């Protein structure tokens, strides 16, 4: 049996976050030949259970995000050495600057998912960007296996570092609930578009809101509006439009299920970060998807979605869809999701790397 240590997440059980959901499902669909040990932040959990989905949980008394994240990852790495694992799976690059040192202390295979080119994100200042770029370089150079979640990032890694990577995306089928799993009902009228994201400039939030402020069609927009001055400013301005409903984050899968299942189309504005979990989740609902035109989204949807690059472009696509029933069919999105974005398949691909 192979012993795997997983580093770089808040932990499991997962309540939010792409990496946390990944670990939740890696442990859920693990084979009998794999033993998972997952490092968790003790600050995030009120009760510190010892096991979840058969995985051993190890708690570190630091926060997994923010300025403590680097120390959190480094301490987790140091602790993992004493577990004598066969594989150390690192999610994200923030703690990878010390990877050369830790490689001297263990024979474990190091596998790193470098995430979505975090150093390029607009939210970081220049010093943080330089540090994350350096950590990414070290992670790629010293990892035995590099995992990227999108073909575009795989191309970047090869061109930038001359190193091949394994492309493994995310599952989204956990968002689609079977009838027997749905205990609550929501009477949502199917007359709205839906968007779900972190409220950040790179997700083209303002572009989407501006577009719908000039249209008669409804949109329900879910995000952390109160998490930044940017979000608060947008909420103050656009909440006055009767066709725009700005909803705070929802972590209840059943409520999200109803919102996704009843919408007439999904708007995806992400422009960075590789394969986005909220997009692959939406693809499982057989709804038309209108995605911002970038390489990441085109690879994820295999060029089968409807793409926009500015306000007038999105407005034209929405009008054509509503008035003329033209545009993209959601059936193709579901087919792609079933082929590529199921957690059982993703878990098997990770185990192939071990």
From TrEMBL:
Residues 1-173 form the DUF1972 domain. InterPro entries: DUF1972, Glyco_trans_1. It comes from the Bacteria. The keyword NAD does not apply. Keywords: Transferase. Residues 186-319 form the Glycosyl transferase family domain. One of its GO terms (molecular function) is glycosyltransferase activity. This is Glycosyltransferase family 1 protein. It comes from Shigella sonnei.
């Amino acid at each position: 049996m192979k012993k795997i240590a997983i580093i770089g997440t808040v932990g499991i059980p997962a309540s939010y976050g792409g990496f946390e959901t990944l670990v939740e499902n890696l442990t859920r669909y693990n084979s009998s030949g794999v033993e998972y040990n997952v490092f968790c932040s003790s600050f995030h959990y009120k009760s510190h259970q010892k096991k979840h989905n058969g995985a051993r949980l190890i708690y570190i008394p630091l926060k997994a995000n923010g300025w403590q994240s680097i120390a959190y990852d480094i301490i987790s790495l140091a602790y993992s050495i004493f577990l004598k694992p066969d594989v150390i799976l690192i999610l994200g690059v923030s703690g990878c600057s010390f990877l050369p040192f830790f490689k001297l202390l263990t024979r474990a295979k190091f596998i790193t998912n470098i995430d979505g080119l975090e150093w390029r994100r607009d939210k970081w200042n220049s010093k943080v960007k330089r540090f994350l770029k350096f950590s990414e370089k070290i992670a790629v150079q010293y990892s035995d296996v590099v995992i990227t979640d999108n073909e575009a990032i795989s191309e970047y890694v090869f061109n930038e570092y001359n190193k091949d990577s394994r492309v493994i995306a995310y599952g989204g089928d956990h968002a689609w609930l079977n009838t027997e799993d749905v205990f609550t009902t929501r009477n949502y009228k199917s007359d709205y578009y839906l968007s779900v994201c972190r409220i950040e400039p790179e997700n083209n939030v303002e572009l989407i809101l501006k577009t719908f402020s000039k249209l008669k069609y409804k949109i329900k927009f879910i995000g952390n509006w109160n998490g930044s001055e940017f979000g608060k400013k947008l909420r103050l301005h656009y909440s006055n439009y009767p066709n725009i409903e700005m909803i705070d984050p929802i972590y209840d899968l059943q409520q999200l299920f109803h919102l996704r299942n009843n919408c007439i189309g999904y708007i995806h504005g992400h422009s960075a970060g590789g394969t986005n979990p909220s997009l692959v989740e939406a693809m499982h609902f057989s709804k038309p998807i209108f995605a911002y035109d970038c390489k990441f989204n085109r690879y994820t949807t295999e060029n089968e979605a409807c793409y926009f690059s500015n306000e007038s472009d999105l407005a034209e696509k929405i009008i054509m869809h509503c008035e003329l029933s033209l545009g993209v069919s959601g059936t193709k999105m579901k087919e792609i999701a079933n082929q590529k974005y199921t957690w059982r398949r993703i878990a098997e691909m990770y185990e192939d790397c071990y």
